Amino acid sequence: MLCFSISGFAQAGLSASDESQDTKSKREYAPQSVVMVGTSLNSSQNACTLMYGYVKKWGWYGKLKTNFNLNEDYSYETSDNSNAFWNGKVKKGRYSATIGTIFNMNGSLMAYGGLGYGKRWVEWGTVENQNIKRTDYSYKGIESELGLILSVKRFVISGGISTNLNKTSYSEANIAVGLKF
Questions:
Q1: How far is CA 68 from the centre of its chain?
Q2: SS3 of 67, please?
Q3: Which of the pair, 70 or 143, is modelled with greater confidence?
Q4: What are the backbone angles phi and psi of residue 98, rounded to the nearest 5°?
Q5: CB–CB of 89/76 below 8 Å?
Q6: DSSP 3-state helix, strand, coil percentages of the chain (rounded to 5)?
Q7: Which of 69, 47, 28 has the alpha carbon at shortest distance from 176?
């Protein structure tokens, strides 16, 4: 009977390795929620992040990013350094919200990518105690990001990069830690 089964696979063009490959491709992924807190790093400004995602093989996520300075307070905008005498005080604000897709590659490694809206502004103080928004360092528009999430048991760590498509010279490295459940 065993010989018949083996020869039956051989006649059908199947082998034991083909059968195990088929089983691997049909692997079921348990639904998982992922919650992470982290930071976005740039040489001129940092921000905090909060991310929530839900994934089986494919899933979705949402991420918020801010430096908690949400109010702009400036007299006028300029990109010209010669318009005023600067007092050295700098005020920076940053926020963004992105949504996107998570792809579970093998159960412990996931890739994510998404789009959203982001804004960053920089204000310089003058000797007349006015704040002037620097348009050459400020931007708003479509935000994009890509990254990887590594999970070890219930813990996750992620790393990625984000940029604003309106000002691609400003990019941020993103790192975060969290839990999956």
A1: 18
A2: coil
A3: 143
A4: -130, 150
A5: no
A6: 15, 60, 25
A7: 47
- Is 29 strand, coil or helix? coil
Q: b vs e for 130-158, b when ≥16 Cβ sit within 10 Å of the residue's Cβ?
A: ebbbbeebbbeeebbbebebebeeeebeb
Q: What tokens appear for 176 in the block?
A: 């975060």
| CA 76 centroid distance within chain | 33
Candidates 123, 174, 163, 161; CA nearest to 141 is 163
Domains and CATH numbers, the chain: 29-180 (2.40.160.20)
Q: Which of 45, 63, 61, 39 is nearest to 167 (CA)?
A: 45
Measure the CA–CA gap between 122 and 85, rounded to whole angstroms: 16
Q: What is the pLDDT of residues 55-82, one digit of tens each?
A: 999 999 999 999 998 778 777 777 777 6
pLDDT > 70? residue 18: no
**pTM here?**
0.77
Amino acid code (one letter) for 5: S
